[in-house]
Amino acid sequence: MRLGSINLKEGKEPTYIIDGVVATKQAMAKLNSADIESVHVNKAETTENGEQASSGTIYITTKNQDK
């Protein structure tokens, strides 16, 4: 997967976190780009809930998140 100039490992999906909640690729695909406030990519890490994300983690914050 390519996100801007960052290549994530081939063959494995990254972990998607939308407004602090683990999400599926399908949920991420349904997001309206106009609703996205920011995107942060970590190439490889352990997520906050302890899940290993060897293919990276994509954090998405929406403009409509509850504050």
Description:
The chain is mainly β. It is built from one helix and eight strands, in the order E-E-E-E-H-E-E-E-E. A hairpin with a 5-residue loop joins strand 6 (45-46) and strand 7. It starts with a strand and ends in a 5-residue tail after the last strand. 15% of the residues are buried.
Number of discrete helical segments: 1
pLDDT averaged residue by residue: 76
How do the SSEs run, as a string of H and E? EEEEHEEEE
Task: Give the C-alpha Rg.
Answer: 12 Å
Global structural class: mainly beta
Number of strands: 8
Strand order of the largest sheet: 4-3-8-5
Biggest sheet architecture: 4 strands, mixed
Tell me the strand percentage band: 35-45%
Q: Name the helicity range.
A: under 10%
Distance N to C terminus: 31 Å
Assembly context of the chains: single chain
Shape: globular
Low-confidence stretches: none
Primary descriptors:
8 strands, two-stranded antiparallel sheet, 42% strand, mainly beta, 67 residues, four-stranded mixed beta sheet
Quick structural summary:
This protein is mainly β and 67 residues long. The protein contains one helix and eight strands.
